[in-house]
Records
---
Amino acid sequence: MSTAAPSSRLTAREHHLPAAAFAALAVALLVGLPEVLGQTGRLAAVLVLQLGLVLCWVLVTGVQGFAGSLAVGAGAAVAADLALVLPEDPELGELLGVIGIGFLAVVVQQMLRRPRHELVASLSGAVLMMVAVASLASLLLLGRTDAGSERALVALLAVGAALVVGHLVDWALPRPQLADGVPRGLLGVLLAVGAGAGAAVLAAGTGDALDGERSLVHGVVIGGVAALTALVASYLVVEATPEDVPADGPADEQRLSPWVLPVVQVALPVAACAPLALALQAAL
């Protein structure tokens, strides 16, 4: 028995251009606020992205228990940030306690809601959301020193360049298509990795934290992860905007706005790249 490929009611323009614009905005926020306000600005930028991801993730994925899921996600975001801000010498391992307690909170929240339909899907979606907001918190460790700030700039520009170029290329020419119904192509992935590498090398040239070879490694690895995670996010967007849902259908079936989707399309790749950038900082 064959299964029809998913198809989204969004046009290629709606799928890619808002995401490219939001990627540029998010990176500008994550780079600009720390330049103006230091670590306080970095905390504010990360928290804004975390809370935006929580709200949009619940809307896009349809996690059941709307208010409870928002509360758990926001609580995980604040707890993860505090775990890395309050200690004098914080480590990434501090997030393990946040994730452990957050997992229990997700389970309790999902078990207490009534009715408990779509329990497994909602539980897995809420757990992934919590892990993503905790991963975003690792950006707070990346920029605690002068050298770390330069490396954070390299990583963020690599992520931003990969996302923007990937979406623009796939808007114009999503070929060869990687999956039926999903407007993403191999050319976009390859050029996104190249853009990430190029942005990292250019950004590293403005400081002394990284030489050309190490910055190239940073750009290729981070750009590759960003491109692949953006591909996963596009699968999510296509499944969340089915073509067969009429525009005047029930409110719960048309709960999405095209302006909600870009937050997930951008925040999810940044979350995947944040701990990776921290690992590269330690390894290189």
---
Amino acid sequence: MCTILQVNRSTYYYENSQHSSSEDEVEQAIIRIFEENQRVYGTRKIKAILQKEGKTVSRRRIGRLMKKNGLVSAYTIAQYKPQKSPCNDSAIQNELNREFTKDEPLEAVVSDLTYVRVANKWHYICLLVDLFNREIIGYSCGPNKDAALVYRAFASVKGDLRQIQLFHTDRGSEFANRTIGDVIRTFNIKRSLSMKGCPYDNAVAEATFKLIKTEFVKNRRFESLPQLKQELGAYVKWFNETRIHSTLGYLSPLVYKQEALKESV
């Protein structure tokens, strides 16, 4: 082949070894990014990280190298709750009205609950998500799906709750009680509820819990509530500080907030 193409053999072997070295470098970078990010990133997000590191690699090539090394993203089809909570028939309207893009931090916060198995018993997770940058500003977990769980999520928020302008949820009974009502009134937070039986009205919260189920709950075994609390705290920290989001231009929530605040100054 070298004779026909009039290429020196030494040149061929040099180029071949260079290609092999480059392939190994990309392969190791893909493995590192996958392991550093909870083993949940797929080809799209790994490509974005590689671009930030100055490497241009196609998703097809990334997928081939992931398959070679047995790297499988945790994503699968959406799962559904095994039970429904009683409906809140309050006359409160849907003030959010599916306007999920906000210009200021804490302009609107959405919340929901999901379930997780702990030592053969159902436990629950509550999250408070800021629509401005998809940051999880508050969270809690426990054995009961009730107002206390939501209250602890509010108590975990770092900062002044009076800065929250709107609080939106579905019509689950855990969000309709005196305890939560007292929090809303005390901090002068405007209330908003989804229409009955319409999950699309709280789509961001639903999407966030899809991430939680896929990236955090799946393939983990929780033996105790303290273990769940510890690992949930570590996941939320990674979610806010490191995990890139396509809706945020492949930035993490905190980096997105920092960049937005710089531009506004």
